[in-house]
Amino acid sequence: LLHVDPGFDANNVLTASLPTLPEQHPDPRELNGYLASLRAAIDNVPGVRQTALTSALPLEGSSYGTVYAIADRAPADQVNRQRAFLKIVSPSYGDTLGIRMRLGRKLSDQDSHSAPHVALINETLANREFPDGNPVGHRILIREPVPGRVELGRESAWEIVGVIAGEKITGLGDEISAGIYVSNQQIPSYGMNLIVRTDRPPQSLQTAIQSAVVSVNKNQALGDVRTLEQIVRQSALGNRVVSTLFAAFAAI
């Protein structure tokens, strides 16, 4: 499993949770401004190459799931629609993790709250829905997560602007589910996770990164600080434990 391609580059990457609450940032757009200020402070730390935000870290799920439909096809009722995971990320997510583009363009900082809503899909969803064509330019209907609530809001159409290579979502043994990626500028999300790519061993920058965060907000915590390589190893160990248990039960 340690030799499986997870779909991203785990070298020299530090991760951490960024706990935020609606009570602290009741305006979701103000939340995005606050998160941007944290990233800007961390970007100025010597040794930091790139930063990104994500609703779920690599190999640790997607945070959100949704049903979807392709807008220019015969409508399907909600019960019979296909499902996909939904990740809310900063536009820098793909570049920071080294995820490859297959078609179209990346998410951009110009994809703001007031701009037309756009999304990336992964190869699994592209192959499922567009086996003989180019998905770029089509619109996909999804119900949007409501910031700060465990519910889905209104359904809206998102233009597919690109296709990315698949990253493994639930672990190294994941077969890669169909997935949709949208910018946190267009769907704000509380409790985002931080990803920092460095040009040196990432643990050596942990104190400096924490100091950069404190310079913006002395009360902002960084939780569950780990390297991405640690997450990969934990995933491999988890898969090994499950395989061993299956083997043990099969022998009974």
Indicate the low-confidence ranges by residue numbers: 240-252
Beta-strand residue fraction: 25-35%
- For the biggest β-sheet, the strand order reads 3-4-9-6-8-7
How many strand units? 11
**Over all CA atoms, what is the radius of gyration?**
19 Å
The SSE order reads EHEEEHEEHEEEEHEH
Shape: globular
- Rounded mean pLDDT is 89
Give the helix/strand layout.
Blueprint: E1 13-17, H1 28-43, E2 48-54, E3 64-70, E4 82-89, H2 93-97, E5 101-104, E6 118-122, H3 123-129, E7 139-145, E8 152-164, E9 179-183, E10 193-198, H4 206-216, E11 223-227, H5 228-251
Parallel strand pairs: 4-9, 6-8
Antiparallel strand pairs: 1-10, 1-11, 2-10, 3-4, 3-7, 5-8, 6-9, 7-8
Verbal overview:
This protein is α+β, with helices and mostly antiparallel strands and 252 residues long. It has helices at residues 28-43, 93-97, 123-129, 206-216, 228-251; strands at 13-17, 48-54, 64-70, 82-89, 101-104, 118-122, 139-145, 152-164, 179-183, 193-198, 223-227. It contains 5 helices and 11 strands. Strands 3-4-9-6-8-7 form a 6-stranded mixed β-barrel. Strands 2-10-1-11 form a 4-stranded antiparallel β-sheet. A hairpin with a 6-residue loop joins β7 (139-145) and β8. The longest helix has 24 residues, at 228-251. 37% of the residues are buried.
